[in-house]
Protein: MFS transporter
Organism: Sulfobacillus acidophilus
Amino acid sequence: MKPVTRLFLITTGWTLAFYMASSFMSAWFWHIGSGFLPIVRFYIVLFMTMTGTFAVAAVWLRPPRSVVFMTIGIFFNAVFLAALLWLGPRARDLLPELAILEGLSSGCYWLAWFTLSAQWVTPGDSHWYNSWTGSLEALLGLIVPPASGWVITRLPGAAGYRLVFLVGLASLAANLLIIGPAWATTPPAPRPVHPQTLRIPGWRPLLLSFVSLGLRDGLYFFLPPLLLFIVSHSAELLGIYTAMQATVQGLVFTWLGRTPRIRPLIYAVALSWLAFGLFWLPLTPGVLLGLGGLVALAYPSFKVALESQALQWITQFGTDFSHQARLTAIKEVAINSGRLVSLLVVMLLIITHPRLHPNQLGPLLAVWAITPVAIWWWHQKSVQQHDDSALPQQSSQL
């Protein structure tokens, strides 16, 4: 099997498992009576684990180890879903341990995926790989969450959750079979010598823009779907919410890919400010669906602007695959640190206001609409520093 085909199948299997099971994880925890604060703590431990995983990988990861990291990530995700199946309602007593499993899984998988995408996807294969991966991800996002929500709603008790978790587990088991032969085909690589990372012009403010993006993501990706489930008590509506976001993001990503000359970041900031007014309304299912649409409209612009800049500099300044993996890990540490901080703010607010109901968090989410301004500011700062550093070199050449 060609490496690019292997990666395509693994990516598809992982996406299926995510849309089938992981997107209903917080709903399951609420369903079994975990409570809002324990769920917030679960995600705090998850992001702490992911941040630590990326930090360790920034020092230890080399191309041969990317296959190991991806295998570990898939395996831990499978163990996580198997634990949910086995524990049932008892999972509420082991949320920190489950968060560590899921954090190790996500951290190992995504860093390995970034590295293997650069290593296994050749220029001749990149067009079909990106096209088919994007198309299948959009299709799965459109079909699987509503189908999972329908199954959860129609089957009695916890049977629906168990079925979607089981299908997700089967998808991950297939991934382990697919990646297994790659252990024997990955060539060895010499230990590299890395230049100092922070001497890349504009790298520090770019990392701060990723921290700001993480601050935004931590609240807007975690809270609205959970609040929607709490308010509506409907897994089916949660599935529709997830499908709507996947569809809107897919359309915006496609539009951005076909209009590369536009400057999407400023439009995304303007869209995000609409949430400032929306969150002062009562958090009804309609308001939360509207918020999900705004988040989905704005997110691709932030993602494209920041990731494109990071990828360009990582490719330009990374001396080899190992150094590029290290730079990628540092970038992921930045974004997950922002996510962690945002959830710590939520936990502090709940601890200091114990009578606060989750559906009263609208004002906090409204104030959080200012974070895209920081994303835009630090991104502009990074580009300016990078351009200024190039001016002396151009002058010397003249």
